[in-house]
Protein 1
Amino acid sequence: MSNHPPLNQQFTYIGQSPTIAVSDRMLALKAAGRTVISLTAGDPDFSTPNEIIAAGMRAMQSGLTHYGPSRGFPHLRKAIAAKLAAPYDPESEILVTHGGVHAYYTALQSILNPGDAVMIPDPSWGTHANMVRLLRGNVISVPALPEDGFLPKLQAWNSALTPQTRALVINYPANPTGAVPPRDYLKALLEFAAQHDLWVISDEVYENLYFAEKPVSAASFPEHRSHVILVNSLSKTYAMTGWRIGYLAAPEAVIENALKASQNSITCVAPFIQEAAAFALTDEAMQVQAAEMRAGYARRRDLVMRIYSEYPDSAVAVAPPQGAFYFFLDLRALKLTADEICEQLLDQAGIGLVPGTAFGPCGQGFVRMTIAASDEDVEKGFRAILDWAKMKVEGA
Ligand SMILES: Cc1ncc(COP(=O)(O)O)c(C=O)c1O
């Protein structure tokens, strides 16, 4: 019998972060003197541009160290509205949040009632499903298969629909697959959502990280804006993950609820961070730096593909990502689970990766490898993965 009063049962439906097991094991190996290359991070290896740091410091020194406006500074909301793919009213349709994760949380809080169902592609970033469960919603997984470029077929969305379904979540460029849908796909999906009166929550935090055409935002279809909710942040674009600043753009009724959710959970985003964000979004030189970071990831993506071409019969199948900063490597040919692959690669080759199943059952046999790491680590790490796979096949 427990010696404390009952806890929130919803937490039994979500596990600890699956990357923690890998991180703990990496730390233990490092402590034992082993060299380990970690290719697990979802965090840019670039530093936040100095000018953004200076803008934050100036704001602190000028006294912006107290509570700020809970919706966000008007000039910051204006700067956010100015960069969106469609007109949004900065007064009533934008909320500044504590990073993309908090934007997503306030979006779900605003629309979900207990027992509502939300459709989420499998594989997807784990928080998309976990947050729904924490808010007493039900997750319906929609397979996003490799042979379909990791985009769920429209038929799959349709088959997953139930009378309780209230929303679907999309995230392009996608974590972990790097998928970016063509405009027509997005248009058809938004039409489907409109037909069934569903919210579309579009998580666009990787919007600036693309390797071909610029991804189309879900906001680009004015006829659908009444059921679109945009989640975004400055984390990945400006290497500002630790600053914790993002935003929600949505119809006024959603923002009104989200504002209440935000006021009652974080009060406001720190005002000096809001000032730094306004600077990041409006200073032209910062857009140049963001583009340079994108070029850095593109260079590493090419590096990975070049190395891969040196291993013509590899058991690892590699599709170049169209966006974000991950490779979702297909090792299904080895007939091992994703956990086994990660454990063995760590123990035998000293490479830390995230098991594909951290993103849903469809990630079985896959691993996520980040390219948000130095060129040297990406090269050494990826070669080690290919050599290990070769050794497995030859030893089998
Ligand atoms: C798909 C996706 N959405 C949202 C986030 C959260 O980003 P933020 O730092 O803005 O909270 C992440 C972070 O890895 C992510 O991968």
Protein 2
Amino acid sequence: MFDTLTDRLGNIFGRLRSKGKLSESDINTVMAEVRTALLEADVNLKVARQFQDKVSERCLQSEIHTALNPAQQVIKIVNEELIEILGGQALNLTYSDKPPTVVLMAGLQGVGKTTNAVKLAKWFKSQGRNPILIGADLQRPAAVEQLRILAEEIEIPVFSEKSDPITVAKNGLSEAISTGRDVLICDTAGRLSIDEDLMNEIRQISDEIKPHYTFLVIDAMTGQEAVNVADSFNDKLSLDGMILTKLGGDSRGGAALSAKTIVGKPIAFASTGEKLEDFEVFHPDRLASRILGMGDVLTLIEKAEDAFDQQEAQRAADRLLNGQFNLEDFLEQMQQLKKMGPLQNIVGMMPDLPQGVNPDDVDETRLTRVEAIITSMTHEERDRPEIIDGSRRNRIAKGSGTSIQEVSLLIKQFKEIKRMMKGAVKPNKRKKKSPPSNSAATSNHTLEYKKRGGTRSPRRERPAAPSRGRGPSSSKSLSSPQSHHARGDRN
Ligand SMILES: Nc1nc2c(ncn2[C@@H]2O[C@H](COP(=O)(O)OP(=O)(O)OP(=O)(O)O)[C@@H](O)[C@H]2O)c(=O)[nH]1
Ligand SMILES: [Mg+2]
């Protein structure tokens, strides 16, 4: 599920990546598209609208974040807001001081109450608890039998009797206490929220066993309609959370994305298939990143934020603008990149690797060799590589354990980068001490991203290769790691 939504969002953000600067109208266009994609995934209109407004507002007021480019900033905000509408944090289930902790399952017919009562019992067991299941569905003749068969698989006792649901629940609680069970899960019959009698019955069960947790089981396949049902259950029972079932199917996911906002209660667990093990605590952040389908790009964004030293970047940017960028700065930028972790991992996290690029092919040692070459140079040589003649080359090659050819190549490529940078920086800007931010002055609401010959991704494994022909907006060379981060001004 979510495949279509993921594809749609992928396309939308893919187009953003080629932009160095996002205007207010860019952001509005993108967010309108995101809203359409959400509606197509059957997300509630109110939720989609709120989401659009919130993300747009945050993008427009976005704090300057020099470690991220505009596309990354938008993805980061979308991700954070997706997590928010999915409920923020995973439910932190606590246990009653006076066992058993009582859980009541409620919901429409066939949504998966019985199956998930057992899955939940299995989960409690995995947490070191001793659950008991109560079969209070006396509506359907085979319901208790179904519960017993499933529970037998995981060796969990079931209590039921031929009386009425309220009495079964009450006696079940006594049974749990007398047998020392610390968690009680009560399965109930499916009922429609408009069926007054049955709704009153579950209310009475609830009054009798006073559940610590009342979970509404909802079927993701029924889309956001399932969520509307939840509202009326919530009125009657005061829900603590929802268990979302059949998430593995081809449902469009609208229910998952609308539930929290509409019902005001979080999704506690998710069931992704028929088997008892297809069940997990619902993690909003994990689902959000799955919906975004960005591989681990979010981890990458986090890493970039962590590792990136903004002051250093600013200094490098200043030097760049002043035409002073030298091999020393280059080395520093490369070391920043290395702080993000093994290059292969970083490349593996890139969601938009060009075809044919395989993270396994990334040769980290080349980065190390470039580093060795630069560290074998004197400060003067790093500052003015043009003084490196034949004998210096020889010495550097020996000192770094590389070859004269490699040293020559690095110097040549570095010259090329510098030449390109000069072309990229307008003369009046080069004179200024600190980088001006006037280029964003035309709009009060822009995310700007100055890619001064920098690299956005380490996916190219040619360490010192200049990003030929890409000019100032190049984002794909490894030549000057992260120097693109140097500025991300916004007025
Ligand atoms: N694919 C899939 N099937 C599920 C999931 N959860 C439950 N089912 C199936 O859905 C059907 C109904 O599940 P039950 O647990 O009997 O549903 P119920 O809500 O107890 O049904 P009633 O008691 O009749 O109201 C069964 O065939 C389950 O195997 C799920 O997460 N994924
Ligand atoms: Mg059932």
